[in-house]
Every structure is written in structure tokens, then in C-alpha cells.
Amino acid sequence: MPLQTPPPPAQITLAQVEMPLLPGSDPVILAAFHWTLLHSPSLRGVVSQLPAADRKARYRLVPDLDSNYGYLRIQATGDLYHIDIGVSFLGWSRCGDALEPWVATALFLALQTARHGKVRETGNPQALRFIRETQAEAFAFQAKVREELAAADPVRMKDLPDGELLYKHAFKPGVYPPAASKDIPRFSQTPTRRPLLHGAP
To answer: What are phi and psi of 167, to 5 degrees?
Structure first.
């Protein structure tokens, strides 16, 4: 009996990892989310837990232009919680970083919030703060995702910077890493990472 070639491994499809998304997510972030979901097992693990972590939560992915690593804005609407997940844009727009690791970090924070019941505790965006331990876990998760993205796309995602250092330097161009191109991407553009300049301290 001739040997048969085993079938190729099944491709991951977005339908296999459902997330309760609201309409109105930023299209650039949404595209980066979908690509990262397909190429990062770590992110798929986080996203697969979101629906059960809080069954009343619904999410929207929006740009965060402050010098932080993400935020959540929560609004109770009837029996549901509408949650804007703020994805930090500054590493990408100022420092030549990729957007995808910051999408993953923001979703990690959303899972931690839902898992520990914080969604039900506040409708005030100023009342939601991430403790130092959660911040450390978020950046450790981001580092793992960066490894997976570099393996998935070694050309576009090579030499990714350290996200925690970008955050600690407030995403200041020319500090860490050196200044990226001045043509800051707009939200309507395709999320293509610009190459980093060499010679970072």
C-alpha cells in the first residue's frame, strides 16, 4: 500500500477565534489585530478567553495617542458594557515600531480587567489603573508576541525595539530608538511598519 502524504495543517481562520467586537473600530488597528491574531498563538490564547471572562462586555479598538501603553474606557449600556480598548499609536507613529505588539498588549489588559471583575466596578475611565505587576505582565506578554511576529514576518518585523523601553522614554523620537521618519502614518493608511534607523544607544 503506497504511503500517503499527510494533509497540511489546518489554517487558522478568524472565525475560529471570536471576539465580541462592536462596530466602529479603527480600520488600521482592526487590520493589525486580524494579522496578529493569525500569526501569534499567544494573542489567540488571550482573545479566546475574552468572551467567557465577562459575557456582558463588548469591545471596540481605538487609537490611543497618549504616552502610555493602553487604556480602557468603559460605559454601561443597558445590560452590556461597551469598552473602548485604546491601542498605543506612538511607538508606531514616532519610533518606527510595529503597531501589532501594542494591539496585543491592549487586548491582554482588557482580558486582565474582565477576568478580575474590574469592568463591573467602574464606569469612570479615570478610576481604572493598572498596578505595577500587571504592567510587568503586559510587557512580558508583548515581548513574547514580538518574538512570534518576527518569526512570522522576518523582513517587516525584524529588529523590533523593546516596547517597555519605548514606554519608559514616553515614545520620544530620538531617545530610544532614534527618530523614525517624519511622515507620521494616518489612521486611514495601511499599517506597514517603517524600518528602524540603526545606531540605537
So the answer is: -65, -45
Burial 158-180 (b: 16+ CB within 10 A, else e): eebbbbbebbeeebebebbbeeb
Q: Which residues make beta-bridge pairs with 72?
A: 85
The pTM (predicted TM-score) of the whole model is 0.80
Q: How many angstroms separate the CA atoms of 161 and 174, rounded?
A: 13
3-class DSSP state of 29: helix
Task: Please say whether the beta carbons of 104 and 142 come within 8 A.
Answer: yes
pLDDT per position as a tens digit, 80-119: 989 999 999 898 888 888 999 999 999 999 998 888 766 6
Four-CA torsion 41, 46, 47, 53, nearest 10 degrees: 150
CB 99 within 8 A of CB 142: no
Burial (CB < 10 A; 0-12, 13-18, 19+), residue 96, is buried
Question: Rounded to whole angstroms, how far apart are CA atoms 194 and 108?
Answer: 25
* 73-87, 143-157, 159-173: which is most confident: 143-157
Distance, CA of 159 to CA of 60 (rounded, Å):
30
End-to-end CA distance of the chain: 62
3 state DSSP class of 61: strand
Q: 3-state DSSP: the chain helix, strand, coil percent, rounded to 5? A: 40, 10, 45
